[in-house]
Amino acid sequence: MKRYAIGIDLGGTKILTALVDRFNGKVVHFVKKKTKNAKGSENIYNKMVESIRDLIGEIDIPANEIGSIGVGAAGQIDRENGILIAAPNLDCFDFNIKERIQDEFAIPVYVGNDVEIAALGEMKFGSAMNCDDFVCVFVGTGVGSSIVKGGKIIKGATGTAGEIGHMIVDVNGRPCNCGAHGCLEAYASRTAIEKRIEGALKKGRPSVISEYLESGKPITSGMIRKSIKRDDELVKQSVDEAADYLSAGLASIINLINPKLIILGGGLIEAVDYFYETTIKKAKTKCLPVPASKIEFKKALLGDYSGVIGAAFLEERDR
Ligand SMILES: [Zn+2]
Fold first, then answer.
1. Based on the domain organization, do 53 and 28 belong to the same domain?
2. Quick one: which of 114, 202, 212, 226 has the most CB atoms within 10 Å?
3. C-alpha of residue 206 to centroid of ligand 1, in Å
4. Ligand 1 centre from 240 Cα, in Å?
5. Quick one: 36 exposed, middle or buried, by C-beta within 10 A (0-12, 13-18, 19+)?
6. Cα 272 to ligand 1 centroid, rounded to whole Å
7. C-alpha torsion angle, residues 44, 47, 49, 51 (rounded to 10)
8. If you measure from the C-alpha of residue 156 to the centroid of ligand 1, how many angstroms do you get, rounded to a whole number?
9. What gap in Å lies between CA 263 and CA 216, rounded to an integer?
10. Do 280 and 144 have their domain in common?
């Protein structure tokens, strides 16, 4: 394995492209570009090429010392052929990332999804170092997870294993983006918490969070943290509700898979300690006593870099 690889985290709002030193897991250099106004396969392709060129141009390492380019995208992936089958938030469909980027740079390209690369990053240099049996759960716009068994990410028959966000927690519950009702994501994501707070504010419930809000801009994890620090009743209730559902989902995962470790990450977990603590405390009381006695929880360690670091190791996944 060559020492360096390029890791790309292709998200709904930005492309983070980094040169990763695979010997120590350090990000040597990175380039960040917004994707907000440039959706669609061609625009995304051009932004990726531009990012890789900028990155290679800004470092002192020759291209022949770069072993591979790993790309993780928020969407459905055909791993074997490196195709982004569907990524609605990027407006990309049937986009052959592997073929096109490989043709452009003559470096082998590997493609995975966003949660998978984050889990790989945490396994290599984050909270799951030396643990080959764990589940990663990321809470953000949605709720995503990756299940690792024997050091390998479980893919399932169609490559979609680990969709904890669409675990049904309320049979006649809220509608979910996937078309079903009562999915965990509709209750425990940052979006769900935002909706609940916004709904209550519209009905005239008082909350200190209104002091931080700017019109037309969404509620952020930071605003939620500040409101909880001030003991705000509405925000606390909304976070408690999300923790209640998330912990139910985690308890089901613990009972079903019996992992040694669960890693929780994403903006809301990172920013709001109260959410993390409440969730893990509740999860332990909701699952069966025997698996509960062994389960360990940790916060993700690598933050924004977990994806690019993991993507730099996608090459190993396909061996
Ligand atoms: Zn769903």
1. yes
2. 114
3. 31
4. 21
5. exposed
6. 24
7. -140
8. 18
9. 33
10. yes
Do residue 235 and residue 286 come from a single domain?
yes
Q: Separation of 83 CA from ligand 1 center, angstroms?
A: 23
Rounded distance from Cα 76 to ligand 1 centre (Å)? 14
Centre of ligand 1 to C-alpha 182, Å, is 7
Output helix, strand, coil percentages for the chain, rounded to the nearest 5.
45, 25, 30
What is the full per-residue pLDDT of the chain (319 aa) written as tens digits? 899 999 999 987 889 999 999 999 999 999 999 987 788 999 999 999 999 999 999 998 888 899 999 999 988 899 889 999 988 888 999 999 999 999 999 999 999 988 899 999 999 999 999 899 999 999 988 899 999 999 999 988 888 888 899 999 999 999 998 899 999 999 999 999 999 999 999 999 999 999 999 887 889 889 999 999 999 999 999 999 999 999 999 999 999 999 999 999 998 999 999 999 999 999 999 999 999 999 999 999 998 899 999 999 999 876 6
Tokens of 168: 């049904």
Tell me how many domains the chain contains: 2
Contact 276, 311 (CB under 8 A): no
Q: Which residue is listed with tokens 């069966």?
A: 288
Residues 164, 266, single domain; the answer is: yes
Give residue 124 CA to ligand 1 midpoint distance, Å. 30
Place of tokens 């907000």: 36
CATH number for the domain harbouring residue 232: 3.30.420.40
Looking at the structure, do residues 185 and 37 belong to the same domain, yes or no? no
Q: Residue 38 is part of which domain span?
A: 4-123+305-317
